[in-house]
Known about the structure:
Layout: H1 3-26, H2 32-66, H3 69-94, H4 110-121, H5 124-133, H6 139-167, H7 170-192
Helix pairs in contact: 1-2, 1-4, 1-6, 1-7, 2-4, 2-5, 2-6, 3-4, 3-7
Amino acid sequence: MSPLEMLVIAIGLAMDAFAVAVGAGAGRRVAGRRGAFRIAFHFGLFQALMPITGWLLGREIAPLIQAFDHWIAMALLGAIGGKMIVQSLRDADEDRPQAEPSREGDPSRGWSLVALSVATSIDALAVGLTLALIGIDVWQPAVVIGVVTGGLSLLGLQLGRRFGERFGRLTEAFGGALLIAIGLRILAAHLFA
């Protein structure tokens, strides 16, 4: 596999993580640089580990997982997106000043971070399986996929934060809707492909 092919695959797989990072940044609930690092690190790590997992699982288990992986991604993204929308409505009711966004529901911590990491990387499992089927070693592509995803996640957080500062609480609701839309896209791609 050429470096250009690896880069194209990495960018394609990182787009969901990038979009989720934009939504998380727009909600302005990510606690500073540490929170941004946690999101970028975990998104990149999970995106790198999923193709390795798919590669190791090989042909026997992957068909079983492929039957419902899109439902898992949709459920995780839908639940977190819905939570973001509800939280943005609560913040509007409390009339919180925009200069001090709530850190409650910080997506860079706990189960929210794990759920987002899994949901945005589940498609990489199929890439690992494909690499195993065509006899390509997974280690170098996995590293490239992880690094690209981490970098694009940081970029997404910055863009989302700037968008959130400009447009206020509505951006968190938009970010939640974006997560739900990504989940629906994943579901539709698997059901109608």
